[in-house]
Design goal:
binds ligand LLP; nine-stranded mixed sheet; 13 helices; globular
Length: 419
């Protein structure tokens, strides 16, 4: 990097650096609760819900709980009048504990046993079916007495990377749009009461045409299945992980989809509800992972910053090659140097490779951004390390919403038969 480039980058980094949220400093939270620490900003979640509601004429938001399932976060999201999408009975139990009514919970499992579907029905959840054998069993058992939703695989390849693309023809998700004859025959054989149609094409969809293609498919099925009351477009609204990255233009998406819904109801003489299941859009930017620098390790080739966290706490960089912005909160004005930020797990666990950061010293506090979605919810106790604590900053106050693991968490459920 030339000198000018480095001065410019330093300027950009210093404008990006956030030392407080809602007036509470990250330093003080690290001092109070220790590191590594997940911190969530409730006002950002609120901002995102508001932006989505502003963009659409009407929308029912079903938060994709898998992104972040802390009970207090679920409760906060519920208080905003948002519903929830769950993918397991355990997520459903958490949603119920957080006060969601069963009717506000959409259950979208995949490849589960039929018993799990039956339990979902017994809990009163709205059931989203994603394969033909289960649709057949559902029809035979419930006929028209219990409504259900169908998850359609639209045969569209879209999404940030192949691991998070779910709508293509080789993906395990949904019932292929090319099997609609079989859907028709099962629905008519059992008189199945289809109340909704669903597509989740993938995560990180910036291209609005993908949503419009989904709309075409869903509208054409809804024309045929007249019991359908809502169309669910899944999640996938893309937020910026890099400062200059393209994102889903939610305002424009809202205009285009709302117009398409209006058009449908004018032509068909019936109104459909528009549902969406954002995960990242609601919580990604609201979350931060605070980590402390344990060691600066210079080798002939690389300068490593070794921090007190790792892929056990935030797996996205290693699992998806995901980029997460990192800031040095302790030395924001330091000279920029390339660092490879790594964790303390006995695996290669790189948070960022050759990343320019203001000089990092032992003990410095680093902030990893976009850690709200699929951060804690994908964390593990690998290497028998404790998962971090979680804090929600709400109304200008930092509230502990989950304690750091202790040895008891590691021992819970273990049966020591030789003791
Ligand atoms: N609805 C369904 C049925 C889903 O499967 C998902 C995510 C969502 C909604 C929410 O998608 P979002 O709005 O968050 O993009 N762990 C990966 C993402 C996996 C997403 C799985 N399904 C990551 O960290 O990038």
């Amino acid at each position: 990097m030339n000198v000018e480039g480095s001065v410019y980058l330093k300027f950009i980094m210093s404008t990006l650096t956030t030392s407080t949220i809602q007036g509470v400093s990250f330093e003080s939270m690290a001092a109070t609760f220790g590191t590594p620490l997940y911190v969530y900003d409730a006002s950002i979640m609120e901002r995102q819900v508001h932006a989505l509601r502003q963009a659409f004429e009407t929308i029912r938001i079903k938060y994709a709980a898998k992104a972040l399932t802390n009970l207090s976060v679920l409760r906060f999201i519920r208080q905003m009048g948002v519903g929830v999408d769950v993918v397991s009975l355990q997520e459903a139990q958490l949603a119920l504990l957080a006060g969601f009514r069963p009717a506000d919970i959409l259950f979208t499992p995949n490849c589960v046993s039929f018993e799990e579907i039956v339990e979902g029905v017994e809990l009163g959840l709205t059931i989203n079916l994603d394969n033909l054998p289960v649709l057949e069993k559902f029809g035979a058992k419930y006929r028209s007495s219990v409504p259900c939703v169908l998850r359609i695989n639209p045969d569209i390849l879209a999404g940030g990377n192949l691991k998070i693309s779910t709508g293509h023809s080789h993906s395990k998700f949904g019932i292929s749009i090319h099997q609609s004859d079989q859907i028709r025959s099962l629905v008519s054989r059992y008189g199945i009461n289809l109340c909704g149609l669903h597509i989740h094409t993938g995560s990180e969809l910036a291209d609005l045409d993908v949503f419009m293609k989904m709309a075409d498919i869903l509208f054409s099925l809804a024309r045929e299945f007249t019991t359908v009351k809502f169309l669910d477009f899944g999640g996938g609204l893309k937020v910026a992980y890099r400062p200059d990255e393209s994102v889903t233009d939610v305002a424009e998406l809202g205009r285009r989809l709302s117009a398409a819904f209006r058009d449908f109801s004018r032509k068909e003489g019936r109104e459909l509800e528009l549902w969406m299941e954002p995960g990242k859009y609601l919580v990604s930017e609201a979350g931060f992972l605070l980590v402390r620098t344990n060691v600066i390790k210079k080798t002939p080739k690389v300068t490593f910053v070794g921090v007190d966290s790792g892929l056990n706490h935030l797996i996205r960089p290693m699992m998806y090659d995901a980029y997460h912005a990192i800031e040095n909160l302790s030395n924001p004005q330091g000279d920029l140097q390339p660092y490879t930020v790594v964790g303390n797990v006995c695996e290669t666990d790189t948070f960022a490779a050759e990343r320019p950061l203001p000089e990092v010293r032992e003990g410095d506090l680093l902030l990893i951004r976009n850690a709200g979605a699929y951060g804690y919810s994908m964390a593990s106790n690998y290497n028998s390390r404790f998962r971090p604590a979680e804090v929600l900053v709400i109304n200008g106050e930092a509230k502990l919403i989950r304690t750091r693991d202790t040895l008891d968490h590691l021992l819970a459920g273990q049966v020591d038969i030789f003791k």
